[in-house]
Each structure stands twice: as C-alpha cells, then as structure tokens.
C-alpha cells in the first residue's frame, strides 16, 4: 500500500500518542480535523488501521505462563484444527507456518499444570498428529509497529 507523507505522519501521531483524539492530532499536524478524520477512515478502510480494543496483559489477569505450541496437522484438517483452537480461551494467537510444523499457537496459562491441561486439550483435537511446546521465559521485544512506520520511505505528497 502506498502511504503519502500525511498518512505516515498521522500513523506516527496515532502510535506515539494513542490516547490523544483526532482533533489533537490534526492540530499537531497543522491540518483540519476533517482532513485527519478522512485520512483515518481511509486508513481503516484499506486495512492499515485495525482494531480498537485496549491491549490487555494476560499476566495481569493471572496468566503468568506463556508458551509457543507448534502443531503437526493431518493433511486437509488445518482449517478444522484452527477453528477448534479459536474456541480455546488460552490460545491467544495462531498462525499457519512453513518449516517444521503446520500451525503455531501462542498459549497462556495460569501455571505449568494448567498449561499441560491446555496442551492436552490441543493434542486431543481431531487432526492434530503431534505438538511441540516451548515455554517463554522473558519477553525481550514486545509486539510493535512504530519502528516500521518510522522506517517508511518519505517524500510522497498527499493524494
């Protein structure tokens, strides 16, 4: 997707000050609030800006164990397994992958014993041949996109 300098500036403003309103961002960028609103809506429609939910730390909810589960799936069962994973609250993310395995899931649990229960539930899913679980020790780089937006090429003017 091609973003011009104003789109990039608006994204940076939104990421750097997510609690500020569009009016504040428009003022800081030196544009009309309507322009900021139109650009924001266009970025939403194009799928650049997604979601409005607050970020919640699973640890604050008592889910202190974080693990990555690689699943090997019976051929032709990937969609069904993914649909089942979506029903397990402790599976907070899942991706189809290449390499060793077919599906990768990020899982949270209250304790190691709870993690074992969750993994056993995953293993019992029809179509799951085997799994490999790795427990995360420390998050070293949190999910982020601000550096990507800062790295976007500059120079395109508004459209």
TrEMBL record:
Residues 3-64 form the HTH asnC-type domain. PROSITE patterns: HTH_ASNC_2. Pfam families: AsnC_trans_reg, HTH_AsnC-type. Keywords: DNA-binding, Transcription, Transcription regulation. SUPFAM superfamilies: Dimeric alpha+beta barrel, Winged helix' DNA-binding domain. This is Lrp/AsnC family transcriptional regulator.
